[in-house]
Amino acid sequence: MIKAIKGTSDILPEEIVNWNYLTKIVQDQMKYFNYKEIRTPIFEHTALFSRGIGESTDIVSKEMYSFTDRSENNLTLKPEMTASVVRSFIEHSLGKQSGLNKLFYISPMFRQERPQAGRFRQFHQFGIEAIGSHNPALDAEVIQVAYEIITNLGIKDISVTINSLGIPEERAEFSNALKEFVADKKNQLSEDSQRRLDTNVLRILDSKNKTDQEIIKDAPSILDFLGSESLEHFESVKELLTAAKIPFNIEPKLVRGLDYYTHTTFEIISSKVGSQSALCGGGRYNLLIEQLGGSSTPAVGFAAGIERILLACKAEESYTLEEEKIDIYIVRLNKELESKAFEFASFFRKNNLKAEIDYSARSVKAQMREANKYHARFVLFVGGDEYENSQVQLKNMENGEQKLFNISELNKIIEIV
Ligand code: AMP
Q1: What is the 305 CA–ligand 1 centroid distance (Å)?
Q2: Hey, which of 133, 157, 240, 364 has its CA 20 to 30 A from 272?
Q3: Which residues pair with 123 in a beta bridge?
């Protein structure tokens, strides 16, 4: 038997209700904060990601699903959305049409990571990209959007962590200081971190390796390398978050995996979902648009993992959804009335009722069982003496009340149901 590819999963009907609920909460918040949806293709030219995300990142160096098509194009299934949104922003000159573009997306992503709880090869993210302003209010807003969605889902056990990576010059100075700090302990560092010393030294700070963590415990802090403008920006973000009543911690080691961040970075962590605890992460990326061929444009955004957020919802039992009910189940008393039942169901469905009938020539008892399985609010009995007299019987399943209707008056049933 052919099975789903490792690290991918089917989202079955009993689970999709949670996805729809989450999607609704995301869409509602996007409306309140005035973000507009954008959809981009599932695959892009590989160069977009290698240039946009950075050759030295884990994503580009070892996780992308890249392939060559029959016309020798190098293509990649998107591993994240920011580069695609920025490509689209540049390609369609969205910056010319409006000074500030507030965009959101919900989309599958693909990364060849080692599958485990909360980490998949096809997973889904929702996120936002606010393109066109330096204002720290947007950094705070982006964090607030993520926070509101997560807390509106009823998730409580979270922490918001923020940091600032300043501007490239400040970051370069800090990188040098960090290199110096670890220079004499280089040989004790993990293999990955030794490699990062040359490619992306900041990444040593978010190493999960225990020895690495011990070594960098007292490493210099990037916050001591920020100039006055960067500090001011960071101060404003903190003030605005406080005003918005969003509790946060400052973690100077929060550098995040991607090359393109400047100034604010942030993560929202759940302590209820095991080792893959980041529900969402993001930050400001003022240099990326220029790097991808657009004109210099500041931007800030985040991406959140839907599977992980749903895991956190389950772990905290953060909400309960009412069982979906159908409005009316039509029980036909004999097989000859099957087409009548079909006709009635069509009528109810056209009038926006959730209606169901039996398709398996089942007994009346079995049809009633099915009506109960679907939590039908009403059952309509079609057949017997009543039907001979052109009548049908409607039963209210909540209080047991029954009422006869003439079959020429099905409109009246719609009013009741
Ligand atoms: P990133 O794009 O790496 O910053 O990730 C943003 C969010 O997407 C993370 O905080 C996770 O919630 C989610 N995420 C990233 N990678 C995976 C994965 N392989 N499987 C499931 N969720 C993921």
Answers
A1: 5
A2: 240
A3: 109
Instruction: For residues 304 and 26, give the distance between their C-alpha atoms in angstroms, rounded to a whole number.
Output: 11
Rounded Cα distance, 296 and 337, in Å = 70
* 283 pocket-lining for ligand 1 (C-beta < 6 Å): no
Does 280 sit in the ligand 1 pocket, CB within 6 Å?
Answer: yes
Nearest CA to 289 out of 110, 96, 108 is that of: 96
224: CA distance to ligand 1 center in Å? 29
Find all residues with CB under 8 Å of 84, minimum gap 6, and list them.
Answer: 40, 41, 44, 48, 78
Q: Which residues pair with 382 in a beta bridge?
A: 332
CA-closest candidate to residue 287, choices 298, 274, 277: 298
| Per-residue model confidence as pLDDT tens for the chain (417 residues) | 999 999 999 999 999 999 999 999 999 999 999 999 999 999 999 999 999 998 888 899 999 999 999 999 999 999 999 999 999 999 999 999 889 999 999 999 999 999 999 999 999 999 999 999 999 999 999 999 999 999 999 999 999 999 999 999 999 999 999 999 998 888 899 988 888 888 888 989 988 889 999 999 999 999 999 999 999 999 999 999 999 999 999 999 998 867 788 999 999 999 999 888 999 999 999 999 999 999 999 999 999 999 999 999 999 999 999 988 999 999 999 989 999 999 999 999 999 999 999 999 889 999 999 999 999 999 999 999 999 999 999 999 999 999 999 999 999 999 999
Nearest to 381 by CA among 367, 369, 392, 396: 392
Identity at 139, one-letter amino acid code: D
Beta bridge partners of 381: 331, 393
Strand partners, 128: 104, 302
- Closest C-alpha to ligand 1, atom 15: 305
Q: What is the rounded distance in angstroms from the CA atom of residue 287 to the CA atom of residue 162? A: 20
Q: Which atom of ligand 1 is nearest to the CA of 59?
A: 3
What does DSSP say about strands 249-250 and 158-164: parallel, antiparallel, or unpaired? Answer: parallel
Pairing relationship of beta strands 36-37 and 101-110 according to DSSP bridges: parallel
Determine the distance separating the centroid of ligand 1 and the alpha carbon of 113, expressed in angstroms. 11
Contacts 24+ apart (CB under 8 A), 358-362: 358/331, 358/332, 361/335
